[in-house]
Amino acid sequence: MDVHPLIWVGAGGALGGVLRVLLTAVVTARWGAVFPWGTLVVNLSGALLLGLLAGVWGLDVLLLQGPTASWWLLAVGVLGSYTTVSSFSLQTLTLLRGAAPWRGYLNIAASLLGCLMAVSLGLIVGRLVAGGSL
Length: 134
Description:
The protein has helices at 4-31, 37-57, 59-65, 69-82, 85-97, 102-129. By secondary structure, it is mainly α. The chain has one domain. The longest helix has 28 residues, at 4-31. The N and C termini lie far apart (36 Å).
């Protein structure tokens, strides 16, 4: 196995993890911890950015030619460690088992639908920025 992708992913992962902690702290300080707003904002923004990268670089090209060093660094490394399914899962389970389980269902719906819409929007904008068509 070529170790170069691992170096790019590791470097990006360090940055993405730090960015996630910082943004989550800012959002939680602003909106409170009754609902996992920080994780939701991180996952939505990460989905949007991943779609944007795929749109700009061309998702079809990435699938045919394989990932580049930039893709390993930004998409897999930074955004892979920036977004978090494990935190989402634990927070959702905690909400479902708490006094207001509807918050857990809201988190599931907002996260899944929101991230699908965000990655779609990012892909569209990325393709337009790159001069392509929808």
